[in-house]
DNA sequence: GCCAACGTTGGC
DNA sequence: GCCAACGTTGGC
């Protein structure tokens, strides 16, 4: 299993909206960047990830899971743009802000810190567990379901 | 609201 | 195929 991070501006698509989609989840549409698309092509059903609020909030606010692997993005006119479907798994009780992540020596290599513009990005298992712990989430339950 | 970083586009 | 111009993202 691999781990990921999905960025969204809460004004466009928020964690609350994601949660309202329930267990069937929702397409992660709108990615028009090859690097981000290629990461989504690598995703497998069951992969876990972070839901990150960019711009406003700037924090990891939730845990999500891939429920449908890459397929054509229904909002794109070109089928080369693909997306996965993800569902909300659980809240992060203490949202882990970008400031806290940057201040954490174990997380200096996170893509979030080093490539702030990439909207879908990989997270290592160690980083995932670390951020879970910082957010008050039991890493075991976040990583296993 | 500004602007740095980065990706994409298009002229040559 | 290079690279300047432009657009977008997202932190500040």
Give me a quick take on this structure.
The protein has 145 residues and is α+β, with helices and mostly antiparallel strands. The chain has one domain: ph1033 like fold.
Notes on the protein architecture:
There is one protein chain. With 145 residues, the protein is an alpha+beta fold. The protein has a single domain, classed as ph1033 like domains (ph1033 like fold, Roll). It is 28% helix and 33% strand. It has helices spanning 15-20, 34-42, 98-103, 111-114, 125-134, 139-144; strands spanning 3-8, 26-27, 48-53, 59-72, 82-97, 120-123. The longest helix has 10 residues, at 125-134. The mean pLDDT is 95. The chain binds a DNA duplex (12 and 12 nucleotides) through residues 7, 9, 33-35, 54-55, 58, 98, 115-119.
Major sheet summary line: 6 strands, mixed
CATH class term: Alpha Beta
CATH topology, by name, is: ph1033 like fold
Helices and strands, in order, run as: EHEHEEEHHEHH
The total strand number stands at 6
Query: How many independent structural domains?
Result: 1
- Report low-confidence residues grouped into runs of 5 or more: none
Q: State the CATH architecture.
A: Roll
Arithmetic mean of pLDDT? 95
Oligomeric organization of the protein chains = single chain
Note the overall shape: globular
Instruction: Kindly state the percentage of residues in helix.
Output: 25-40%
Radius of gyration: 14 Å
SS field, number of helical segments = 6
Distance between the termini: 12 Å
SS-based class:
alpha+beta
What is the name of the CATH superfamily? ph1033 like domains
Strand content: 25-35%
């Amino acid at each position: 299993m691999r781990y990921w991070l999905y960025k969204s501006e809460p004004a466009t698509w928020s964690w609350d909206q994601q949660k309202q989609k329930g267990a069937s989840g929702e397409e992660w549409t709108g990615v028009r960047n090859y690097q981000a698309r290629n990461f989504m092509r690598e995703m497998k059903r069951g992969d876990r990830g972070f839901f990150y609020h960019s711009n406003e909030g700037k924090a990891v606010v939730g845990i999500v899971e891939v429920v449908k692997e890459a397929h054509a993005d229904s909002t794109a006119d070109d089928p080369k743009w693909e997306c996965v479907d993800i569902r909300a798994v659980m809240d992060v009780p203490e949202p882990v802000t970008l400031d806290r992540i940057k201040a954490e020596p174990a997380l200096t290599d996170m893509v979030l810190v080093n490539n702030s513009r990439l909207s879908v990005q990989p997270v290592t298992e160690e980083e995932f567990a670390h951020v879970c712990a910082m957010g008050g989430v039991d890493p075991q339950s976040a990583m296993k379901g």
